[in-house]
Design a protein that fits this description.
Layout: H1 2-20, E1 24-26, E2 33-35, E3 51-54, H2 56-59, H3 65-77, E4 87-89, E5 95-98, E6 104-106, H4 115-124, E7 128-134, H5 150-160, E8 164-168, H6 179-195, E9 201-204, E10 222-224, H7 257-261, E11 276-278, H8 291-303, E12 308-310, H9 319-326, H10 328-334, E13 343-350, E14 358-366, E15 372-378, E16 384-389, H11 390-393, H12 395-398, E17 413-417, H13 425-432, H14 454-459, E18 468-473, E19 478-483, E20 487-495, H15 496-505
Parallel strand pairs: 3-4, 3-12, 4-7, 7-8, 8-9, 9-10, 10-11
Antiparallel strand pairs: 1-2, 5-6, 13-14, 14-15, 15-20, 16-19, 17-18, 17-20
Helix pairs in contact: 3-4, 5-6, 8-9, 8-10, 9-13
The structure holds 2-acetamido-2-deoxy-beta-D-glucopyranose (8 copies).
Length: 506
């Protein structure tokens, strides 16, 4: 009972702290500051989710320097770097051992120019560089791990110019099973990275083991919350036995998109600026799902503030998949400074005989400028007319207590479809074949996040970020949309009253 009470209080504090998104807050008119622990990034890094590319899902151990360099160049040419995907992350299987002084040695067959020189070239292309290791004696691919060598490894990476570490959990010598064991083990690397004095984003990959939702935000910038993803929309697999994140003792692998997504609702309050629940790397482009299933995968990762790491072969990207990865109206939600996750308001399993086996669910998310996101997810097997009422959109406000009537319920909300302006096949093909390079300032399909930021773009109502108006939600109203099987409608809701007030202030 006592433990329960403490847990509940901690959850409340964490929830409040993350709502402020800042470490110091002015109290009254005095220059008196209060530090809210955990209210922001522990090391000041990664205030919005990291974006980039990681080789694992498409290439596993078949990596080498030309793959890294050609992928980086392709990402520049296809506008992906300028869409915000600015980390190139090398995964497992790069080190061959340690030298006599105990430092890691990179495979000089795969990386003949040497890691430092490759990283310098990646930097010159306008990217940051991510490195991989494991908090164990071996990595998952049985290459040398960093347990016991944290200081040496962090120093070497810093010297090479590494900007990011993905830190796995294999071969941990049994130093797991309680939050304290995992916290202590992962903290050693956190401290070692910090002590290098170089800014290095720390991406924990312990698959949600030992409930990192309670402790990892104090030592890391993101944390995987599930066993490994595989390229399936909803196929259950015995090797991914958990359906909930909290208390999952055996995260496993071969987790489907729907399995991982449905683990998120319980832990949404544990997403905050500087610490993101990592739903794992994207599978878009790898061939195991339909176009609309990839749209669901990308959209739901984005609105939950998961890191967005392209996990496919960029060199063979199809126009349709480029269009998904580039949708700026969806990325703008992910990169919103509110740095929060979506809430699942309801979820119903559907009747196999009447509506096709599966489920439907409603997700909402608030954004820093007061806009709302609504996602109508149809994971059933037939097209559905899905409904959302204003009471459902503002469910939390409505149930927050009786001290005030939620003003949102008496406002009129314009509804913008965020997939309506998806880049067409011809435009995407022209980008891929090099005919179209520059992103025009007035594009409705592309946004240059190198020239500006998503936050500034939304503020100026950039045409690529707001979608296309498809309806309104009135006080006590309902919005209905036809959603095809295995697809999602994602909408941005803007209050007319708030927009008018803003105009008056100008
Ligand atoms: C590098 O890796 C890629 C992807 O696995 C492969 O296609 C290519 O042949 C490799 N190149 C070299 C020089 O080994
Ligand atoms: C081991 O590697 C480190 C880092 O690359 C290097 O500074 C050191 O000289 C090497 N030691 C030996 C004995 O080769
Ligand atoms: C190290 O951590 C401290 C907070 O403990 C932070 O202020 C500092 O910026 C960090 N430095 C680096 C290089 O990460
Ligand atoms: C889903 O519908 C497709 C036809 O669209 C059908 O082939 C398939 O068997 C159905 N799957 C399930 C699980 O009902
Ligand atoms: C949405 O509302 C319409 C009209 O009331 C109804 O026919 C339909 O079944 C509803 N959709 C769902 C998924 O409940
Ligand atoms: C590039 O793609 C565009 C759009 O599909 C097409 O019109 C054009 O002919 C292609 N150019 C080349 C060089 O392949
Ligand atoms: C995006 O903007 C940057 C900085 O202004 C510019 O260098 C780059 O070429 C632009 N990218 C595209 C694809 O238009
Ligand atoms: C963007 O501006 C260019 C040049 O001013 C114009 O030709 C084009 O039609 C505009 N595109 C859109 C989508 O407004």
């Amino acid at each position: 009972m006592v433990a329960l009470t403490i847990g509940a209080t901690a959850a409340l504090l964490l929830g409040q702290a993350s709502a402020y998104h800042q470490e110091r807050r002015q109290v009254g008119s005095e220059k008196h500051t209060v530090v809210i622990p955990g209210a922001s990034s522990y090391n000041g890094l990664n205030l919005i989710p990291q974006m980039g590319w990681n080789n694992w899902n498409a290439f596993h151990c078949d990596v080498n320097e030309s793959l890294l360099l050609t992928t980086a160049q392709d990402m520049v040419d296809y506008g992906l770097r300028d869409s915000g995907y600015n980390y190139i992350v090398l995964d497992d299987c790069w080190a061959v051992g340690r030298n006599e002084s105990g430092y890691l040695v990179a495979d000089d067959y795969k990386f003949p120019s040497g890691m430092k020189s490759i990283i310098t070239k990646i930097h010159a292309l306008g990217f940051k560089f991510g490195m991989y290791s494991s908090a164990g004696v071996l990595t998952c691919g049985r290459y040398p791990g960093s347990l016991g060598y944290e200081k040496k490894d962090a120093d070497l990476w810093a010297e090479w110019g590494v900007d990011y570490l993905k830190y796995d959990n294999c071969f941990n010598q049994g130093q797991s099973g309680t939050p304290k064991l995992s916290f202590d083990r992962y903290k050693v690397m956190s401290d070692a990275l910090n002590q290098t004095g170089k800014e290095i984003v720390y991406a924990m990959c312990n698959w949600g083991n030992d409930d990192p939702y309670d402790w990892a935000y104090r030592i890391a910038n993101s944390g995987r919350m599930s066993g490994d993803i595989y390229d399936s929309f909803n196929r259950p697999d015995d090797r991914c036995p958990c359906t909930e994140a909290a208390g999952c003792a055996w995260p496993g692998f071969h987790c489907s998109v729907m399995n991982i997504l449905n683990k998120m609702p319980a832990i949404t309050s544990r997403t905050m600026s500087g610490y993101f629940n990592d739903m794992d790397m994207l599978e878009v482009g790898n061939g195991g799902q339909s176009d609309s299933e990839y749209v669901v995968h990308f959209s739901m990762w984005a609105i939950n503030s998961s890191p967005l790491l392209i996990g496919t072969n960029v060199g063979t990207l199809s126009p349709a998949n480029l269009a998904i990865y580039s949708n700026p109206a969806i990325i703008a939600i992910n990169q919103d400074t509110s740095a929060s996750a979506a809430k699942r308001v309801w979820r119903y399993t559907t009747d196999p005989d009447e509506t096709g086996e599966g489920e439907i669910s409603l997700w909402t998310r608030s954004l820093s400028n007061g806009d709302r996101i609504v996602a109508l997810l149809n994971a059933a097997n037939i097209t559905m007319n899905m409904n959302v009422t204003i009471n459902e959109v503002f469910f939390d406000e409505r149930t927050a207590g009786a001290y005030r009537a939620p003003p949102e319920l008496s406002q009129t909300w314009d509804i913008y479809d965020l997939w309506a302006n998806r880049m067409g096949e011809a435009e995407a093909a022209a980008i891929l074949n090099g005919t179209s390079v520059e992103i025009p300032a007035n594009s409705t399909t592309r946004f240059n996040a190198t020239a500006s930021t998503y936050a500034k773009g939304v503020e100026s109502a950039h045409p690529a970020l707001i979608g296309s108006r498809v309806g309104t939600l009135q006080p006590s109203g309902t919005f209905t949309a036809e959603i095809a099987r295995h697809s999602v409608g994602v909408y941005r809701l803007r209050s007319r009253e708030a927009a008018m007030r803003k105009r008056d202030e100008l």
